[in-house]
Amino acid sequence: MSHRGIHDRGYLPHWDFDGSLQAITFRLGDALPEHVILSWKSELALMLQHPDQSIAEQAAKELRKRIARHEDAGYGACILKDHGHVLQEILISSHTRSYRLIEWCIMPNHVHVLVKLLPSQSLRGIMQNWKGGSSFLINKLTGRSGSLWYPDYHDRFIRDTDHYHNAIAYIRNNPVKAGLCQLPSEWPLSSAGMEWSADFSPHPSPAKAPPNKDAD
User: Fold this and answer.
1) Sign, CA torsion 129/25/21/105
2) Where are the chain's structural domains?
3) Arithmetic mean of pLDDT over the chain
4) Burial readout 185-216 (b: 16 or more C-beta within 10 A, e: otherwise)
5) What is the pTM of this model?
6) In terms of Cα–Cα distance, which of 214, 20, 197 is closest to 121?
7) 3-class secondary-structure state, position 149
8) Residue 16: pLDDT above 80?
9) pLDDT digit string (tens) for 192-213?
10) How far is Cα 32 from Cα 28, in angstroms, rounded to an integer?
């Protein structure tokens, strides 16, 4: 197993090694107001310094819920509502080459993906491919320029079978919860909408996430 370890870009830690099951969330650059991001960065930094690790982890979990609610409110231009098919094609194109694509949902201003990394593939490299490729093509379609995505992303290490099925349920139900449709299958920019089958059965994770890496 090639282990790239834990790294971060000053906000969220990333657990990156091949063969891992990862639930990933990333968002457009305008999906959250900048002042909100700065405030939450400071808040998260304080939480992670709490001497009681369980309190720190619970506080970080609550913070993620607040972020998710804000994203689901549809802040920003929500350019993926009209052009999310570009990213969807990119996600599918690397299935079985860089990862096993298990589940995904492209919301108007953010994205959820569940993948199993293949040997010698890094999550960082995969994210660069998703973001870079979609930015180039969407900018070309819309006549815009510059970065489309927020620089960082959030990945959750899938611990076990229960966590795996919970992650799938969350991804499938996100557009329903946000009031965009009544059934997961009605949202076209998703694995549920495409009736996707990855022909994949979860196995116990090959390694445990470190204590300070949130995996809820």
Assistant:
1) negative
2) 3-186
3) 84
4) eebebbbbbeeeeeeeebeebeeebeeeebbe
5) 0.80
6) 20
7) strand
8) no
9) 999 998 877 676 444 444 443 4
10) 8
